[in-house]
Q: What sequence folds into this?
């Protein structure tokens, strides 16, 4: 194979990867939109935030081509999960396997699309200022008092 052919092949591979990424992101947006609408209706009628949230996270893992292998047992009782947040995929992976409510910084609630999705899955938003610490602790306490598990990054 000549150098020119190698360059063309390399460019074609790059183009393929780019097109695949655009298609996956478009699928992610479609899934988010459709399940967001369903969550508004279903969640309002039943107050079951977990079912569609977990379906959403599983579908996001599929669309983004994230494969997960779980070792061991995931705790079924009320638990506080503290995780090191490495990427956006963490949210989908953990949300797909753990029945819990996320805690997020208050700025996330104002982000386009992601803020709405976070509100739909019943995320608790905490202001990260010294004077708001007591309020944040109380809100987390309320969630725990209701018997929910919490995911904190």
A:
């Amino acid at each position: 194979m000549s150098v020119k052919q190698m360059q063309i092949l390399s460019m074609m591979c790059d183009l393929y990867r780019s097109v695949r990424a655009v298609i996956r992101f478009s699928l992610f947006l479609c899934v988010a939109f459709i399940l967001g609408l369903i969550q508004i209706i279903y969640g309002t009628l039943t107050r079951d935030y977990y079912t569609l949230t977990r379906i959403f996270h599983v579908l996001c893992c599929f669309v983004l081509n994230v494969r997960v292998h779980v070792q061991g047992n995931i705790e079924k009782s009320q638990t506080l999960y503290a995780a090191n947040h490495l990427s956006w995929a963490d949210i989908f992976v953990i949300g797909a396997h753990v029945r819990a409510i996320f805690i997020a910084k208050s700025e996330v609630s104002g982000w386009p699309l992601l803020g709405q999705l976070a509100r739909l899955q019943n995320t608790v938003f905490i202001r990260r200022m010294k004077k708001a610490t007591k309020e944040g602790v109380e809100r987390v306490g309320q969630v725990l008092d209701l018997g929910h598990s919490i995911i904190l990054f």
Notes: The chain has a mean pLDDT of 83.
